Amino acid sequence: MNTSPMPDTRLDERYSDEEAAAVPWSTAVAELTAAELYWLTTVRPDARPHVTPLIGVWADGALHFCTGSYERKAENLRGNPNVALTTGSNSLHGGLDLVVEGEAVRVTDAGRLRALAAAWEAKYGAEWHFDVGDGVFVNPGTGEAVVFAVAPRTVFGFGKAPYSQTRWRFA
Predict the structure, then answer these.
(1) 15: left (phi > 0), else alpha (psi -120 to 50), else beta?
(2) For the chain, what are the domain ranges?
(3) CB of 63 within 8 A of CB of 149?
């Protein structure tokens, strides 16, 4: 379930230590898969940014998240599906920070939603159990949630030991 197309990988030497090398895409995928928390940036109708933390899963070459259809981020996505999702560590001298840029696309296929619901529960535990309704996740305690997939167009990786900036571009 964690397949991913191979991107064009480039180290930006302007922002990298001399001994730095491009980070392999497989390392970025491992970090995206393991991350517990992501920050989603959307754009409000008046062009102001909206940033919020959320949980998600990396599956089928995309980062997936869910939200109530009435929430600010869902409203923003109806007007502009372009997003940035970030994750990483708060340390200055270690780790890899990632910025995923792409378009958030609704996931409504029941089979795919069931697989994603299972992935959510496997990653986050029974607290994050979802049933699948008509094109949505259903949680008895919180109601319905729409699910989005963000297949990356561009991903930036910021290494901090040594300092590096890797860019992965997808066709």
Answers:
(1) alpha
(2) 8-169
(3) yes
Query: What does the pLDDT average to over 143-149?
Result: 95
Q: Hunting for tokens 């995206």 — which residue is that?
A: 32
Handedness of CA 156, 157, 163, 165 (dihedral sign): negative
pTM of the model: 0.94
Task: Give per-residue pLDDT as tens, 96-145.
Answer: 999 999 999 999 999 999 999 999 999 999 999 999 999 999 987 888 99
Contacts 24+ apart (CB under 8 A), 133-136: 135/106, 135/108, 135/110, 136/69, 136/108
Nearest partner of 99 among 171, 161, 19, 169, judged by Cα: 169
* Residue 43: strand, helix, or coil: strand
* Alpha carbon of residue 2 to chain centroid: 13
Kindly state the tokens that stand for 126: 């029974």
> In the CATH scheme, what is the homologous superfamily, with its name and number, of domain 8-169?
Electron Transport, Fmn-binding Protein; Chain A (2.30.110.10)
Long-range contacts of 69-72 (CB under 8 A, 24+ apart): 69/136, 69/144, 69/145, 69/146, 72/42, 72/44
Residues in the chain: 171
